[in-house]
């Protein structure tokens, strides 16, 4: 039977490994990084002309380190003398690192959509993101280029072919070409 002195580190290690998915960043089309707060981003408009589902490969790093640390600590309490404790600690670190890596890759991977957008100003771009807004081919979108490129549904954006707003003009006004006002 295990003593509470041995069970407590094992439970602590398992709790540490279980929290690794919470460390994974929420990488969605509607999420903004802390670095992106308060920074300017360029905006353009376009129409989705194509889309396809894609697999997002998960990342590994923090989960591997956390799992190895937790496994090493938990394993070091197994055995009677210092040699068996050291060997069990090394084994626990290896197993914990592998488990932490697998957990992190599962938490940060998944599926997303690659959208092909024909921009009003000309040219096509591809943007990969999740699809919380349910965007579809034919939808008008706002293309925001800030800390990363993201799409969102255009609500009252300029119609296709519009040249954009004049500098200093009220929202919704379009640029006017010509000689200007009479003096």
UniProtKB/TrEMBL annotation:
Its main location: membrane. Residues 62-104 form the Glycine zipper 2TM domain. Residues 151-183 are annotated as: Disordered. GO terms for cellular component: cell outer membrane. It is found in: Cell outer membrane. This is 17 kDa surface antigen. InterPro entries: Gly_zipper_2TM_dom. It comes from the Bacteria. Keywords: Lipoprotein, Signal. The keyword Lyase does not apply. Belongs to the rickettsiale 17 kDa surface antigen family. Residues 162-176 have a biased composition (Low complexity). Residues 1-24 form the signal peptide. It is a lipid-anchor.
């Amino acid at each position: 039977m295990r003593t509470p002195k041995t069970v407590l580190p094992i439970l602590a290690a398992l709790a540490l490994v279980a929290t690794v998915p919470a460390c994974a960043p929420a990488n969605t089309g509607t999420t903004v990084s802390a670095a992106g707060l308060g920074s300017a981003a360029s905006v353009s408009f376009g129409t989705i002309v194509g889309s396809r589902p894609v697999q997002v490969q998960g990342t590994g790093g923090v989960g591997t380190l956390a799992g190895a640390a937790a496994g090493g600590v938990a394993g070091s309490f197994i055995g009677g003398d210092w040699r068996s404790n050291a060997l069990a600690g090394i084994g626990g670190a290896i197993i914990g690192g592998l488990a932490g890596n697998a957990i992190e890759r599962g938490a940060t991977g998944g599926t997303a959509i690659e959208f092909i957008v024909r921009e009003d100003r000309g040219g096509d771009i591809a943007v990969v993101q999740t699809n919380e807004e349910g965007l579809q081919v034919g939808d008008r979108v706002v293309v925001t280029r800030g800390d990363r490129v993201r799409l969102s549904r255009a609500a009252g954006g300029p119609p296709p072919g519009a040249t954009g707003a004049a500098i200093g003009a009220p929202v919704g006004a379009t640029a006017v070409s010509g000689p200007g006002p009479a003096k």
